[in-house]
Specification:
Layout: E1 2-6, H1 12-15, E2 16-20, E3 31-41, H2 43-50, E4 61-62, E5 68-74, E6 86-88, E7 99-103, E8 108-109, H3 116-120, H4 125-134, E9 144-147, H5 153-164, E10 168-173, H6 179-183, E11 189-192, H7 197-205, E12 210-215, H8 220-228, E13 234-237, H9 250-254, E14 259-262, H10 274-286, E15 296-298, H11 303-312, E16 316-319
Parallel strand pairs: 9-10, 9-12, 10-11, 12-13, 13-14, 15-16
Antiparallel strand pairs: 1-2, 1-4, 3-5, 3-7, 3-16, 5-6, 6-8
Helix pairs in contact: 4-5, 4-10
Length: 324
């Protein structure tokens, strides 16, 4: 069968290649065999391929952090899924192959009405959004949440999840041309990072406290966010889009007593909570409140082009239904 192998750490466009490998054996006790349909190229996949992610499997190896497919067979003792179910693949099973064997208890059965492309994008960004909104502050309807990189895929998920919970969102972007697009997502405020931004957000929130800030950028953007948060608020760092270390003033840390957290959804404390978060995220997607767009699909044989597209920007899916 066809699969994508990471052949060495470094440039993903050069080191990710389609190969022919043997079909998996099994499934054995507690396992299921899944025929993959679609698998996104996530930013975490590119970080892994570059050798700078929290996971570091030994090349050559299949990678791929999420995806969806159809259960083809189940092993002894499996009761939670059945042949024919469309499922998402759990953390720990790499997805960039025509078929994978996964622990059946980690598979998540998606609603029959949900298409395979949408299903393939459920596990990471929408689930991350739910966890970010749930794990640090007990938010109530009408509370405010501050986030930057408001045009990112994760931020779009956070906005939809927040709206489904009756929360208010203040979003920050780095380019003014993005403002109309983010306004259409239903945010309560979106502004461009500038010296005027704190005053604009204070006006938009009518001075209401903001207890949760979600930072995906780092660098000076983190300092801006920290300056806007309320005393005792929680500042959560979940990505590093700028590649620059976070900046937070001593005044915000000492005087405001800000709580600063690093977040990765696969920390041990979050693993038991992923299914509940995924369930909530799936309901919001299925209801139409959250749309998961993508830019293009590529066959596994086009992995170089797919990676280059992903690096330029845009959500890309690998299509294992047409693997040749």
């Amino acid at each position: 069968m066809k699969a994508i192998h990471l052949t060495a750490y470094g440039n993903p466009a050069q080191n990710l290649r389609m190969v022919e490998i043997s079909e998996p054996t099994g499934p054995t006790l507690g396992e299921a065999l899944v025929r993959m349909e679609y698998a996104p190229i996530a930013s975490s996949d590119l970080l892994l391929a570059n050798g700078v992610y929290l996971l570091r499997p030994k090349p050559p190896c299949v990678i791929g952090g999420e995806g969806a497919g159809i259960v083809e067979a189940v092993g002894p003792g499996v009761t939670g899924v059945k042949t024919g179910d469309r499922v998402t693949i759990p953390f720990g099973t790499f997805t960039w192959a025509e078929k994978v064997v996964a622990p059946a208890e980690g598979l998540f059965v998606v609603p029959p009405s949900m298409d395979a492309k949408t299903a393939s994008m459920l596990n990471i960004n929408p689930t991350t959004a739910v966890l970010l909104l749930s794990e640090f502050v007990k938010l109530k309807p009408n509370d405010w949440v501050l986030l930057n990189a408001a045009n990112s895929h994760v931020a779009r998920c956070i906005i939809a999840m927040a709206k489904s919970r009756g929360l208010h969102i203040a979003g920050i972007v780095r380019r003014p041309e993005l403002v109309p697009e983010i306004e259409k997502l239903g945010v309560d405020f979106v502004g461009v990072e500038s010296s005027e931004l704190p005053k604009q957000i204070h006006t938009a929130t009518a001075g209401a406290p903001t207890a949760l800030g979600l930072d995906a950028v780092g660098g000076p953007s983190t300092a801006t966010m920290a300056s806007l948060l309320s005393p005792g608020a929680h500042l959560v760092i979940y990505a590093w889009l700028s590649g620059v270390p976070i900046q937070v003033s001593q005044g915000d840390l000492i005087v405001k007593k800000l709580n600063v957290h690093g977040f990765w959804m696969y920390y041990d404390e979050y693993l038991p909570k992923i299914r509940v978060a995924l369930t909530e995220a799936t309901k919001v997607v299925a209801s139409g409140q959250l749309h998961l767009p993508f830019s293009a699909t590529y066959k596994p044989s086009q992995i170089k082009e797919a990676v280059e597209h992903s690096q330029r920007g845009g959500k890309v899916l690998l299509d294992f239904t047409h693997a040749n």
